[in-house]
Q: What sequence folds into this?
């Protein structure tokens, strides 16, 4: 089983839609969680950290469910510019960050 | 520049040749990571340097791969006797933090093509 698993998609949604992605992790000792965004042929960039209490940044909401070992990302009012691959990232102890394979989002006009 | 710099941006080599990829992290960042990404795939961890600690080499796929970080700054990833399956984008990232709240800054990567 992979340490971090994501549905690869693609998720094709119309502009203005709300879309949610989940990511599951296998190690219950995992401590830190992040969502990164990667545009086509570009390097990944941090989108947001995920806190235990859940957190929001504009149209983006991230949540953590430790009991079920998953994190989620909700995007409201999707924009064309949101089209990208969203990478779930987990850290365990002092090990390097572990990236999921990503979920591709395509927002259509 | 202020970001992570990688060179070369593209490298085409013949099977069996050795290659060296370079990474200049953001000044002052103590943590440096190498990942690779094959087309349409996720990021595969290779190696992690943190300060003066022994590097975490657990992701290196074979003994043909090695990396060093001189003076706590510049890092070089070396692939010996390259194989076609080594073709990928090699991404370097640096961070000023460890543990919780860690934010990685990535370079633009080196596209390696082994013919």
A:
């Amino acid at each position: 089983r992979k340490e971090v698993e994501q549905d690869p998609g693609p998720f094709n949604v119309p502009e203005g839609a709300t879309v949610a992605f989940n990511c599951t992790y296998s190690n219950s000792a995992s401590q830190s969680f992040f969502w990164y965004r990667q545009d086509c042929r570009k390097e990944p960039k941090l989108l947001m950290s995920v806190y235990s209490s859940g957190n929001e940044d504009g149209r983006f909401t991230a949540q953590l469910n430790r009991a079920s070992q998953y994190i989620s990302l909700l995007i409201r009012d999707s924009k064309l510019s949101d089209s990208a691959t969203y990478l779930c990232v987990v850290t365990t102890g002092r090990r390097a960050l572990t990236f999921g394979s990503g979920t591709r989002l395509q927002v259509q006009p | 520049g202020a970001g992570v710099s990688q060179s070369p941006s593209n490298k085409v080599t013949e099977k069996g040749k050795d290659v060296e990829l370079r990474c200049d992290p953001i000044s002052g960042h103590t943590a440096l990571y190498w990942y690779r990404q094959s087309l349409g795939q996720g990021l595969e961890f290779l190696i992690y340097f943190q300060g003066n600690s022994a590097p975490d080499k657990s992701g290196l796929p074979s003994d043909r791969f090695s990396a060093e970080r001189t003076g706590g700054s510049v890092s070089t990833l070396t692939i010996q006797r390259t194989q076609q399956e080594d073709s990928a984008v090699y991404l370097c990232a640096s961070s000023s933090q460890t543990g919780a709240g860690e934010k990685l800054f990535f370079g633009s990567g080196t596209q390696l093509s082994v013919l």
User: Anything to note?
Assistant: The first strand of chain B starts at residue 5 and ends at 7. DSSP finds no helices and ten strands in chain B.
